[in-house]
């Protein structure tokens, strides 16, 4: 690949630096990463004041042995501030038809747990009754990284995934997977 081909495929870091603003660099980095599709989950927990939760697309598996997962909340998140001291949480893996749930959990001014069927995990945390799957997790480590925290957690129990298509986030929008022809 030649330099001119690389330059023609998108903004280069050098070009953005010449334009001069940190915001432009940050937006370009975000747009580049937005080309990587992710699943969407809910991170939830039961507190003394009731259930709390947030939508999350920065969730990933880390290890099979031992079973570990990670997610990356903003330290300024009020939901993360309520979840962190509990030391554990549940994850609901969202279906393609759960876009409305994800959007509701991304908001601050609504009852996030209204209008859907919920069940409790063995640890007592709420999960969507019709999620593709769920897991309970115990926080092992929290580290600060840039403008986010890195939360490493041990999975303590989980459901086997049910049939269905996942909700996918790509290029700033929700999508579902294209069904492959038989």
UniProtKB/TrEMBL annotation:
Q: Does the keyword Oxidoreductase apply?
A: yes
Q: Where is the Flavin reductase like domain?
A: 33-176
Tell me the domain of life: Bacteria
Q: Which UniProt keywords apply?
A: Oxidoreductase
Pfam families documented for this protein: Flavin_Reduct
Q: Name one GO molecular function term.
A: FMN binding
> Is Oxidoreductase set as a keyword in this record?
yes
The record's similarity note reads: Belongs to the non-flavoprotein flavin reductase family.
Which named protein is this?
Flavin reductase (DIM6/NTAB) family NADH-FMN oxidoreductase RutF
Provide the organism lineage as a comma list: Bacteria, Bacillati, Actinomycetota, Actinomycetes, Micrococcales
């Amino acid at each position: 690949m030649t330099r001119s081909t690389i330059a023609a495929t998108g903004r280069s870091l050098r070009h953005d630096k010449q334009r001069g603003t940190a915001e432009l660099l940050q937006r370009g980095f975000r747009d580049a990463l937005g080309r990587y599709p992710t699943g969407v989950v809910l991170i939830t927990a039961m507190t003394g004041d009731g259930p709390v939760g947030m939508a999350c697309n920065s969730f990933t598996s880390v290890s099979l042995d031992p079973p570990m997962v990670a997610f990356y909340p903003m330290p300024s998140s009020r939901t993360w501030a309520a979840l962190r001291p509990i030391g554990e949480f549940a994850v609901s893996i969202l279906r393609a038809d759960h876009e409305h749930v994800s959007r509701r959990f991304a908001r601050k001014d609504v009852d996030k747990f209204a209008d859907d069927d919920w069940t409790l995990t063995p640890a007592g945390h709420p999960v969507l009754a019709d999620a593709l799957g769920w897991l309970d997790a115990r926080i092992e480590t929290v580290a600060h990284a840039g403008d986010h925290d890195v939360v490493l957690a041990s999975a303590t129990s989980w459901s086997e995934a049910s049939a269905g298509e996942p909700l996918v986030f790509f290029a700033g929008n929700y999508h579902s997977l294209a069904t492959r022809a038989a």
